Amino acid sequence: MLFWHGDQSRYGFADESDGPYVLDFLAQTGPQCADIFTELQRLTGGVAPMPQQSEAARLFDEISRRFKEHQFKDPFHESLLLYEFLTSLWRDATRIPAERDPVAFASEYIERRYHLPITMDEVAQAAGISREHLTRRLTRKWGQSPGKRIQELRLKAGKDLVCNTTAPIEAICQHCGYLDPDAFARAFSRKFKISPSRMRQQFLEHASISKNNRIVL
What we know:
This is HTH araC/xylS-type domain-containing protein. Residues 104-202 form the HTH araC/xylS-type domain. One of its GO terms (molecular function) is DNA-binding transcription factor activity. Keywords: DNA-binding, Transcription, Transcription regulation. It is a single chain. By secondary structure, the protein is mostly helical. It folds into three domains: 2-94, no CATH class; 98-143, Orthogonal Bundle (Arc Repressor Mutant, subunit A), CATH 1.10.10; 154-217, Homeodomain-like (Arc Repressor Mutant, subunit A, Orthogonal Bundle), CATH 1.10.10. 63% of the residues lie in helices and 3% in strands. The protein contains ten helices and two strands; from the N terminus they run βαβααααααααα. It has a two-stranded parallel ribbon. The radius of gyration is 21 Å and the shape is globular. It starts with a strand and ends in a 5-residue tail after the last helix. The model is unreliable at 4-10 (pLDDT under 50).
């Protein structure tokens, strides 16, 4: 899972930066940790946001700094901070600020959970407004129904995995929110006018040709 915070760029690396890219990461094990992580992943998908002023961002920076400077008091102190970090991420993922725009919240909710079997009743309940009202507002926002939006997100993710991984098509369809491989293949073919397996074959052939035609100076 990825956590991002800091500047406004997608990968935490500003466009004007000319220095090396530095990646900070945390590794943690333990049964309770696994339970929290599994629930967090269910709520947020593969990317969990950390707003700059959030408790999670503060803890992430503190843990990273203490590790680099060898400033943990003992293993219990280290474990405590790590569990506080995971818990704060979980709180952020489940909290709905009163002042938050319910449509913006619902849009983000769908963007993070399209790979899950979500329903508009679930999204509306999480956003705090009726399903009918939310559906109308999201349709105006996107120019398409929420159902079509979810399908587009799933198929785009499926296309990326088909072209850039060697994962079986059956595994890809489940990762993208489709329970039935045949339903995924039919939707994929309607959207891209080609089957998933044939698209992968064409992508590999094109990559091979490009590699063979590369000029080395």
